[in-house]
Design a protein that fits this description.
The chain has 202 residues and is mostly helical. 67% of the residues lie in helices and 3% in strands. The chain contains 11 helices and 2 strands, in the order H-H-H-H-H-H-H-H-H-H-E-E-H. It has a two-stranded antiparallel sheet with strand order 1-2. Strand 1 (174-176) and strand 2 (182-184) form a beta hairpin. Helix 5 runs antiparallel to helix 6 and helix 7 (103-123) runs parallel beside helix 10. The protein is globular, with a radius of gyration of 18 Å.
Length: 202
């Protein structure tokens, strides 16, 4: 069943006109199974990734390629890192890149990432969504556990500092588990109420 759905999705993406507003196109991307990807399918997804404007669809493709069998695609992840602006998307590109790069190469990328991170409190003071991803089991803790590079630990400590500097109204609403699943820790209603109360007292 899972394999049939994946094969049908890839066939559709190969033959159908490119249209990121087409519900069938969106469904096809969401039905891609990273455990079943072939080298040719990886190439197609890379091509689609750079054509897409929709962040959610790029996110799905990036996660699939990041976790699929390690076909050589260092160049893809380098370009994806440069393309993305959100830190969670950049970190997924780094997760992919780390499979094909030396520690020294990753050190340089993480130094750039860290500089962007440090500017977030100025540009996005209540940046809870990015922080929750970075500090989740799917984010920096995975990289620390897998590779043990000091640059990952250093960045994680900076994330924790900036996270804890935020008001409590922006903490603890969700997390991401080690399989990349969204885990709701508060209901959307409760989250909205906490944030509304915070801004009402400003």
């Amino acid at each position: 069943m899972k394999q049939n759905r994946h094969e049908e999705s890839m066939k559709y993406l190969t033959t159908a006109p490119f249209s990121e507003r087409d519900p069938m196109f969106i469904r096809a991307i969401n039905n891609v199974d990273y455990t079943l990807l072939t080298n040719a399918e990886v190439g197609l997804l890379e091509f689609l990734y750079f054509q897409l404007k929709d962040i959610a669809l790029r996110n799905k493709i990036l996660q699939s390629l990041m976790r699929s069998e390690p076909f050589e695609r260092k160049d893809f992840f380098q370009k994806a890192y440069k393309k993305e602006r959100y830190l969670d998307m950049r970190l997924m590109a780094i997760r992919g890149l780390a499979q094909f790069s030396s520690k020294e190469e990753i050190d340089k990328v993480m130094e750039h990432f860290l500089q962007i991170l440090k500017k977030r409190p100025e540009t996005t003071p209540y940046n809870y969504q990015e922080y929750e991803f970075l500090r989740s089991a799917f984010g920096l803790p995975y990289l620390i556990k897998t590779y043990g590079y000091p640059c990952f630990e250093k960045t994680f400590q900076q994330v924790e500092k900036q996270y804890h500097d935020m008001p409590d109204a922006f903490k603890g609403h969700f997390t991401i588990d080690e399989d990349g699943n969204f885990i709701e820790l508060r209901s959307p209603k409760e989250t909205k109420q906490m944030m509304d109360n915070f801004f009402a007292t400003r």
